[in-house]
């Protein structure tokens, strides 16, 4: 009976972006088939806080901007990090589950019964309403944890009665786990209209929280639902999380261990919360990529938002938008490129906007950097012997490490032909059309 609830609530949660793969968790780790609806392999996603970002734990600066400026993390440091982290993880009887740096996320809803009328959401129209009590879910998760089938909990919920009741149930689940000594990772969804006092209470138990803003504009949001308020119900939750994050930075109210190694945290007293994220649905309304760029950029500029997820709209039978055409997944991919350029490369909104077409969208055929480069014909082709670091960073196919390699090597030996770039490990296939070496180009592209 409980397993059946977990399966149905896990299936309902799968419509939300996760960044992992259920099938992959089955193949690589041998997770039993009956758990496939709600256990994801997130080892290569940002949810894997075990090593990737916990190395930078405790730093007071913004950790989501220009990450290429941070020092490289050696394999020795990563191994040592995992060694410390693994002390909080039970050893599984299945050898495949004892691999280092694993991140198996249990993603589930507390209930799929919802009072809202979101036109894209399966929970507004599903006939079989299922709920699981905090004690049932805590018991089930603890079992999976001790078996080694999971290393973290991603808990969300539909709004059954009101935001207060549904939030209290999720918080109760996490509180039970913490009081039983669970020190692993918890990601908790903040529901629209959740009072700030409950968000603060959730911060005592969750390592990461998130608010799905779903749309980039007030108008776009109103196209999707009539029962939620964009500014008051959703964006104010972002503001509450931002205030909490700044409080953590300001007061350094965190243990000096790892992100989810909470052995030094006193239950009900110390804040575990360290980061927050958001998600937008793409293609369910009439918003353009420019609208999305403006919203995401403002969030990164004005708040401590860790990162943004995008989900290409896909129609679900029974919903109001069931007959709407699904959004091209490539558009979702392009917006992830935009997010990468904002967070990792530190590109400005103005620069990225150069890649927009007349419809204020990014091309589905060229990646965003290439679209930007094609709009900067005044700059290209570039000579790798004289170009600045920031100019090289604009070259399609070049990343921060590539730009650094070129600059470091040209100081020792002048680049005389494209083969010189290849010899130092630069992949020039995509970049060569935008470069000239000794006055020569391989492809002209009308520059």
The overall strand count is: 7
What kind of sheet is the major sheet?
7 strands, mixed
The parts where pLDDT drops under 50 for at least 5 residues are 50-70, 254-262
- Sheet with the most strands: spatial strand order: 1-2-3-4-5-6-7
* Total tally of structural domains: 2
Shape: globular
Share in β-strands = 5-15%
Average pLDDT figure: 84
Give me the Rg, rounded. Answer: 23 Å
Elements, N to C (H/E): HHEHEHEHEHEHHEHEHHHHHH
Give the termini separation.
Answer: 66 Å
Task: Specify the helix fraction band.
Answer: 25-40%
Instruction: Kindly name the structural category.
Output: alpha/beta
- By DSSP (H or I, 4+ residues per run), the number of helices equals 15
Layout of SSEs?
Elements: H1 2-13, H2 22-29, E1 39-41, H3 75-85, E2 104-109, H4 134-147, E3 152-156, H5 163-179, E4 185-189, H6 196-202, E5 208-214, H7 218-222, H8 230-251, E6 275-282, H9 289-302, E7 307-312, H10 329-345, H11 349-353, H12 368-374, H13 389-393, H14 400-410, H15 418-423
Helix pairs in contact: 4-5, 9-10
Quick summary:
By secondary structure, this protein is an alpha/beta fold.
Can you put this structure into words, describing what you see?
The protein has 447 residues and is α/β, with parallel strands linked by helices. It folds into two domains: 2-276, no CATH class; 379-447, DNA polymerase, domain 1 (Orthogonal Bundle). It has 15 helices and seven strands. Strands 1-2-3-4-5-6-7 form a seven-stranded mixed beta sheet. The longest helix has 22 residues, at 230-251.
């Amino acid at each position: 009976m409980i397993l059946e609830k977990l399966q149905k609530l896990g299936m309902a949660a799968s419509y939300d972006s996760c960044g992992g793969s259920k099938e992959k968790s089955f193949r690589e780790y041998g997770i039993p088939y009956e758990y496939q609806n709600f256990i994801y392999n997130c080892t290569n996603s940002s949810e894997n806080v075990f090593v990737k970002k916990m190395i930078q734990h405790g730093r007071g600066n913004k950790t989501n901007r220009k990450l290429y400026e941070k020092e490289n993390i050696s394999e020795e440091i990563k191994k040592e990090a995992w060694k410390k982290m693994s002390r909080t993880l039970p050893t599984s009887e299945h050898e495949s589950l004892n691999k280092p740096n694993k991140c198996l996320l249990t993603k589930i809803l507390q209930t799929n019964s919802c009072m809202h009328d979101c036109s894209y959401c399966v929970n507004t129209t599903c006939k079989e309403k299922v709920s699981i009590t905090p004690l049932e879910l805590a018991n089930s998760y603890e079992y999976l944890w001790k078996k080694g089938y999971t290393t973290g909990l991603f808990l969300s919920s539909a709004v059954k009665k009101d935001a207060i009741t549904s939030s209290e149930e999720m918080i109760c689940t996490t509180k039970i786990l913490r009081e039983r000594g669970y020190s692993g990772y918890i990601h908790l969804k903040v529901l629209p209209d959740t009072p700030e006092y409950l968000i603060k209470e959730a911060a005592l138990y969750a390592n990461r929280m998130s608010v799905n803003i779903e749309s980039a504009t007030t108008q776009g949001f109103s196209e999707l639902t009539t029962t939620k308020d964009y500014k008051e119900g959703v964006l104010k939750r972002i503001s509450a999380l931002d205030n909490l994050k700044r409080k953590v930075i300001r007061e350094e109210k965190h243990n000096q261990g790892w992100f989810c190694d909470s052995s030094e945290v006193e239950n009900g007293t110390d804040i575990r919360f360290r980061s927050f994220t958001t998600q937008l649905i793409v293609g369910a309304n009439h918003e353009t990529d420019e609208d999305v760029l403006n919203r995401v950029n403002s969030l990164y500029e004005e708040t401590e938002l860790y990162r943004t997820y995008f989900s290409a709209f896909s129609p679900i039978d029974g919903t109001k938008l069931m007959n709407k055409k699904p959004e091209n997944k490539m558009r979702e991919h392009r917006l992830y490129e935009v997010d990468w350029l904002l967070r990792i490369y530190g590109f400005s909104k103005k620069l990225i906007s150069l890649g927009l077409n007349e419809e204020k969208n990014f091309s589905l055929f060229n990646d965003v950097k290439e679209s930007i480069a094609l709009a900067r014909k005044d700059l290209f082709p570039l000579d790798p012997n004289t170009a600045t670091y920031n100019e090289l960073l604009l070259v399609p196919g070049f990343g921060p490490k590539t730009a650094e390699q070129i600059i470091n090597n040209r100081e020792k030996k002048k680049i005389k032909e494209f083969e010189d770039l290849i010899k130092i490990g630069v992949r020039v296939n995509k970049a060569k059309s935008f470069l000239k070496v000794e006055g020569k180009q391989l492809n002209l592209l009308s520059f």
